[in-house]
Structure formats: structure tokens, C-alpha cells
Amino acid sequence: MKKEKQIVQKGLSRRTFLKGTAGSIAAALASSGPGKFLTQGIYAPALIQQNNTVVFAIQEFAQPAIQSVLEKFESDTGLTVQLEGGPVSGNDMLTRYSPQFASGTSSVDLFSDADDSSPTFMRAGWVMPLDEIIPQETWDDFPPSMQDHIRGFLSIDDVPYRIPHEFAVGYFFNRQDLLDEKGLAIPTTWEELVEVGKEVTDAENDIWGTTDALIKPALLYVYVAYLTAQTGGKVFDFDEGTGEALQFLYDMIHTHKIFPETALNQDYTAQNELYMGDKVYFMRQWPFFQGVAEGNAEWYAPEKMVISLPPAGPAGSKSWIGGWGFSIPTYAPNPDGAKALIQYLTSPEVAPVLAEQQGFLLTPRYSILDALKDSGDELIAAMGLYAENNVFAPRAFHPRVAEAQTVVDDMASLFLTKQATLSEVLEQGKELIAALDE
């Protein structure tokens, strides 16, 4: 295979960039003075006199970024924002807020909610529709590749109840340095993935073309869903595309032997250690790995962490997305204040200010990518690359998503450990998913 490098632009490290520029956009925003953000297209309501406290729940690590833009909002609206720590998982969201919402009350006016919990809140009528709250210019700021995700995990019947503020996608990391040594190119298709994988794998010395974390619960599902996005299948339907994905993973492990079988018992820490131990040439991994690798200063070098498009399967180069977003409880004590705050935080002017400071507030919106395009940040460049090439695929949706993911985990495990045939797991998977729908 002819060698052609696909290198995401490198420059300043993310830490250096964020440290050096985090205040610059915020300072420019503040310098416009109270009341002037209306001229910049940011919606601001009239001063709200009654019940002027807005309680906003979001994870504590994201609060410094939020705090950096609140002075202007509070000055322009007369509102005071009270931040409180939000749950860190979808299960924790359900545990904390479901009893309140079910009783017709809420301790918060605005909160950050997860993919795993929002379908329950939406379908129970516990959060407000946002179609008439968030301006159209804000929705238009999201690229087409995110619209299916918004219509799925954030909407009912095309009416949105949550707006994304955090974006997670599996990026394809490559050891460009090792590939260069062998005169090999980064694989761009499933076929090339196998071809190059065979060239570099040395199983006796625990060196592999690729790997992932496939331990249950949840992690096996993540990778199967990733491959199924590349076949165009619907993983919870256990359709033909799901079968193609499972067969490809089986073949990488058992037929081509470019993927370690031990991955079935490994988590992300073990996966990352293999990669940073110079045992893996390329792999899918979540964005957090960039920070993990940069933190390993003795090992890290940009050529060891080149992000390329995912190798294309039958449906192309795809990687599914997920994340967190803002919602307003139906029983918010101060709904007017919550509406004003969500409009402000998600506006095309303020969203980039938040995104440059905290990855939890980063999404591939046009305004954000444009504001940060020259930052030299690897993940910003990769996000732009993926957006431009329509890589983002919607996360598979099911109203009982946690249970549905467990079904995929269990069925995939049976097939990959040779305890059941592909036809058997597809048939049984369909039956188990159907039982969840009853």
C-alpha cells in the first residue's frame, strides 16, 4: 500500500494554548460593557425583578469556565446565578432528580444532563421543550453531521428538549513514527486495516495492528456500535449491518489475528498502556487519551498520536457521538431565568469562550471551530477534520438504552468467545430487544 501521511496539524499543546488564551476571548466579551451583547446577536431578556436567582447544576470541574462569563450575564439581566455540583453519570442523574421531578418539584432551574438519562426525563415530561426557547441561529450553528444525534437522544418527534454542550467521539489514533519506519501508510479502509495489521503484528511479542477495550459491561458495546456505524447498521436492531460488524471484529481477532483476544478482558487503562508501550500501531479511543498521552512526557511525541479518519467500512468512515447537554426542568422554580441563561450560554458568541477553557463544554459547532481553528490544538483540528468529512454518526437510540447496551454486550461476547454462532446471536439479540419494548 502506497504511503501517504494523514496528519492532523500540530502546534501548541492543549495546555499551553488554553493557558495562554483562555482569558482573551472572555476579556473581549466583557469589554463590550453591560447591555451591549444584544448588538452581537446574543439574546438578552429585560431585567427580571422577581425571583432573581437561577440555580444551575453542572459538574464542579466545569464551573470555573461557566463562572468566567457570568458577570456580564448577571449585569445585563439582573439575575444571580447559583452554581451547584451536578451528577457525573446518567445513573446518578436519575437517582438524584427522578424523585423530585416525579413529585412535581425541582431544586434546580437548569442542569447538565447525560445521554443515558435524558430519554427518561424527556418521555416523562420532566424537562421543557427548547424549540421556542433556543434561537434558530443557535441550532443552525451545529453541523449537519450532528443533527441526527440531536433528533435522537435530545428530542422527541423532532422537538428538542436538550442542547449539546459536550461532545465525545472515538478518534482514530496512529503511530505515524512506527508506520514510517516500515514504509506503511495509515489505513483508510477496513481492507487496509487488515492488510497493514498483518504487516505489523507480532503476536509472540504482544505487538498488534490494533486493539480496543472490550471488557463488559459497556466497553464491548462501545466498539461494536463503532463498527456498526461503519456498516450503516442499527446495533439495537441486530440487523445485517450489526452482523457485518460482529463478523469483522471476530475476524480481526480469530482469523487475521491482528487484534489481541485478551482485549475482551481489558479496560481503557490497559488499552492505553499497550499503545504507549509501543505494542499497538493504531486504535480507536475517546478524546481523553490525548491528555493521558501528553501527560506521559517521557513517551509523548506528536508523531505518536496522529489522528486520521476512521478506516471506512461498507457505509464509509464513521464514528458515533455522544455527550451531555443543557435541559430546563418542567418544574424549575425560576423558568424565565433558566431560559435566559440557557440562551446566553449556548449562543454562538459565548459557546466558544466556554469551549476554549473546558473540553466538557466543547462541541463541533461552526462558531467554536471557527474561533479556535488556528489554536494548534490537536483535538480541535481533529474535530474539524471529522466534521468536514461527515464522520459523526448518531449514537444508537433506545428508550431503555442501558439495558439495550447490555444485550449487545452479552450477545457479542457469546459470538466472540465462540459460544454461539453469528446467526444465533442475531436472532436472540432481536428477541431480547423486543422484550425490552413490551
Description:
The chain has 438 residues and is of the alpha/beta class. It folds into 2 domains: 21-167 and 323-393, D-Maltodextrin-Binding Protein, domain 2 (3-Layer(aba) Sandwich), CATH 3.40.190.10; 169-320 and 398-437, Periplasmic binding protein-like II (D-Maltodextrin-Binding Protein, domain 2), CATH 3.40.190.10. The protein is built from 19 helices and 14 strands. It has helices at residues 14-30, 63-68, 70-77, 90-102, 118-123, 136-139, 144-153, 176-182, 190-200, 219-231, 240-255, 268-276, 288-295, 335-346, 351-355, 366-372, 378-388, 401-416, 422-437; strands at 53-58, 80-85, 110-114, 155-156, 159-160, 163-164, 168-169, 171-174, 208-211, 280-285, 306-308, 319-322, 324-327, 392-393. α18 (401-416) runs antiparallel to α19. The protein is globular, with a radius of gyration of 23 Å. The model is unreliable at 2-49 (pLDDT under 50).
Brief rundown of the structure:
With 438 residues, the protein is of the alpha/beta class.
Indicate the radius of gyration in whole angstroms: 23 Å
Instruction: Give the total of domains.
Output: 2
Strand content: 5-15%
Assembly form of the protein = single chain
Q: Major β-sheet, in short?
A: 5 strands, mixed
Helix % is 40-55%
Intertermini distance: 50 Å
Approximate shape: globular
Report the CATH architecture of the largest domain: 3-Layer(aba) Sandwich
List keywords for this structure.
single chain, 438 residues, alpha/beta, D-Maltodextrin-Binding Protein, domain 2, 2 domains, four-stranded mixed beta sheet, globular, disordered N terminus
